[in-house]
Amino acid sequence: MTSMFKFLLISLTLALALPASAQVRIKDIVTVEGVRSNQLVGYGLVVGLNGTGDSLRNAPFTERAIEGMLERLGIGNLTEDEMRTANTAAVMVTASLPPFARMGSTIDVVVSSLGDASSLRGGTLIVTPLTAADGEIYAVAQGPIAVAGFAAQGLNASIVEGVPTGARIDNGAIVEREVAFDFNELSTIKLALRNPDFVTAQRVERAINQAVGPVATALDSRTISVTPFGKESLIETMALIEPLQVQPDQVAKVVIDARSGTIVIGANVRIDQVAVSQGGLTVTVRDDFNVSQPETLSIGGTTVVVPNSSVAVDKKDAQFAVIDGSVSLQRLVDGLNAIGVGATETISILQAIKAAGALHADLEII
């Protein structure tokens, strides 16, 4: 065995023995002060629907919008009977104006039905101004919409897939006004961690200062201030900072979605030694209905429905399992799986362990 081969074998063995560190780029865990999106909203009309639009009797705002649109186009003095149409729907149009969006660039918009339209498939959005919180118009949307869901209905049955009353238009709005913001006029850059943590903030500060120079200072668990020096511009400084990699720290947390039964347990979750028991009774009640018919040619007989109820009790023996103290995530999962519990029972067990003071983590229920 050559010395080179021995060296490669030893290096491979050490690499497999060392724990892998989750290094992420700084740009993926921080936001930059002032560099953010702005929400836009507008009210408009979708036309060209195949009889699936708003009923004007139940959506008077749609009728008023149609009147206003036709008057602007030089068509007025229409009676209510002359305006009865099922091919138009009132919609709310929303969009997100990205940072540094310039006049003439396009953005995506989301269209949502406001009235009782059953589907927006095949419709076209008419010119709709989009305003921000300051009341100014920043974009104008128009174009054919794309609906992911569909709805079909017959005489005695119907089927709905997805949400046919919601749609989007890719590049459906043109930016007409820019947000007044000059990034190069800032004297300092403030980076905000998406997940505030003192350890992560210190690691980001250290990584920036080692790569760029002593320009970064962690102000708190969320904010890192960067003050460039020399001839480098803010753009050049950010281009140097964003690719740097750090290992973020995280708070021990257990997140539970009680509606779907989803449980997410963080890697740093620890519990003290506890004994867990799971078991109980399951009672099932079932109602069956039998039809009693009168005999043939009987006089005064009537058909009656006779209920038939049955009750079943399933008794499950309680099981105890001991989960060692200060266990890792894998040991905790193995201990819960050893009891053979489902998602609902696991949620109850985790809540009980937290109430007993043995779960050293934040328990968040959404």
From TrEMBL:
InterPro entries: Flag_FlgI (IPR001782). One of its GO terms (cellular component) is outer membrane-bounded periplasmic space. Pfam families: FlgI. GO terms for molecular function: structural molecule activity. Residues 1-22 form the signal peptide. Its main location: other. Belongs to the FlgI family. Assembles around the rod to form the L-ring and probably protects the motor/basal body from shearing forces during rotation. This is Flagellar P-ring protein. It comes from Sulfitobacter delicatus.
